[in-house]
């Protein structure tokens, strides 16, 4: 589950706002009209994501298109080498890259992008429970997520073409990597594609120059320090990596991210869009929209960084990228928290007001009354 606030309503008196390690509650009138509106959002999205043919058809469609997008991105032979990744029976071996050449990487989110977690969402709704770090961790440890249609086939395709898939998830690197890997294997992804170094999940210590995936960054109180997904991708692009302990791979390997795949707009450039209201998130889309569904290697990638003063700086990459948004997650995400400041803490009445205001931004008003 992404480490972002997730609102799951109770079918009764209490609305709960949850983020990892934090639960805030506020009382609402039982069976209020506002609460009913918010409750229905969870039921409808849960049912659609669980049983609709449209959900699987959509993701199969997107992943089939993503294969073709990847085929175009790897035509950047001036910067890429496609003969450095060898899939050999039960292992993947990665050789050293030449000077100024790199292996193409697809960075993928996991939750609602590779694994469908609506078994967990449905549990919360049907049991009048709320998200918290304990029940979410219990779900991960049980390894009951199912694959998103088309995702596993796409991952194998990337490797068959000389690329590598890395996982840019906000699951916890420290205690959720093993069950996540086992869940992916149970859903059909071979273990050989899942060495530790492909996991760049929440907690990875980006200050480590050697094998950050082995280290967890914590503060003086032992609390895990968060990082942005784009921060992790930028680091992978900028360094050379020693993978010699993994099946005899090389010790000087360069990677370049040529594709990003996620279900949340914040999976792509969260340094700029994370924790922002929707008007600000849409401004970021003005810069990055050219990359969604991109097939043109003359269109360069976009990255954001923070300078020493914390200001967000946009830069163009020297190579092309393509973005793939796996839609269908209308249950939670940055789009919802972006409806209003402190959306999850303002109560059902204010939440419905924010939802209403969103609808009014694109509203038909008949010229004459319709009977």
Automatic annotation (TrEMBL):
<keyword id="KW-0732">Signal</keyword>
<dbReference type="InterPro" id="IPR023214">
    <property type="entry name" value="HAD_sf"/>
</dbReference>
<dbReference type="InterPro" id="IPR005519">
    <property type="entry name" value="Acid_phosphat_B-like"/>
</dbReference>
<protein>
    <submittedName>
        <fullName>HAD family acid phosphatase</fullName>
    </submittedName>
</protein>
<dbReference type="InterPro" id="IPR036412">
    <property type="entry name" value="HAD-like_sf"/>
</dbReference>
<dbReference type="InterPro" id="IPR006423">
    <property type="entry name" value="Lipo_e_P4"/>
</dbReference>
<dbReference type="Pfam" id="PF03767">
    <property type="entry name" value="Acid_phosphat_B"/>
</dbReference>
<feature type="signal peptide">
    <location>
        <begin position="1"/>
        <end position="18"/>
    </location>
</feature>
């Amino acid at each position: 589950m992404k480490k972002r606030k997730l609102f799951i309503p109770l079918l009764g008196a209490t609305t709960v706002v949850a983020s990892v390690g934090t639960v805030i509650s506020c009382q609402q009138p039982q069976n209020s009209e506002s609460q009913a509106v918010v409750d229905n959002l969870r039921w409808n999205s849960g049912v659609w994501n669980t049983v609709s043919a449209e959900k699987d058809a959509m993701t199969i469609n997107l992943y089939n298109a993503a294969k073709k997008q990847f085929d175009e991105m790897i035509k950047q032979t001036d910067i890429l080498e496609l003969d450095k990744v060898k899939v050999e029976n039960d292992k993947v071996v990665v050789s050293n890259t030449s000077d100024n050449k790199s292996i193409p990487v697809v960075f993928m989110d996991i939750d609602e992008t590779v694994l469908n977690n609506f078994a967990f969402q449905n549990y919360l709704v049907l049991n009048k429970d709320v998200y918290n770090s304990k029940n979410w961790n219990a779900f991960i440890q049980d390894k009951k997520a199912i694959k998103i249609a088309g995702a596993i086939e796409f991952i194998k395709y990337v490797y068959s073409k000389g690329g590598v898939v890395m996982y840019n998830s906000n699951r916890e690197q420290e205690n959720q990597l093993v069950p996540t890997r086992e869940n992916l294997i149970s859903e059909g992804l071979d273990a050989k594609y899942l060495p530790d170094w492909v996991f760049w999940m929440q907690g990875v210590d980006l200050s480590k120059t050697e094998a950050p995936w082995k280290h967890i960054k914590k503060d003086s109180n032992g609390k895990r320090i968060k990082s942005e997904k784009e921060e992790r991708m930028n680091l992978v692009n900028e360094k050379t990596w020693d993978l010699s302990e993994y099946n005899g791979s090389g010790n000087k390997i360069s990677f370049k991210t040529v594709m990003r795949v996620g279900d949340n707009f914040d999976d792509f450039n969260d340094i700029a869009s994370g924790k922002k209201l929707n008007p600000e998130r849409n401004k970021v889309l003005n810069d990055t929209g050219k990359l969604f569904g991109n097939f043109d290697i003359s269109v360069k990638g976009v990255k954001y960084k923070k300078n020493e003063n914390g200001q967000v700086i946009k830069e163009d990459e020297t190579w092309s990228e393509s973005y793939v948004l796996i839609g269908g997650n209308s249950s939670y995400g940055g789009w919802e928290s972006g409806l209003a400041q402190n959306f999850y803490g303002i109560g059902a009445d204010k939440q419905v007001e924010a939802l209403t205001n969103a609808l009014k931004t694109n509203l038909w008003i008949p010229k004459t009354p319709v009977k």
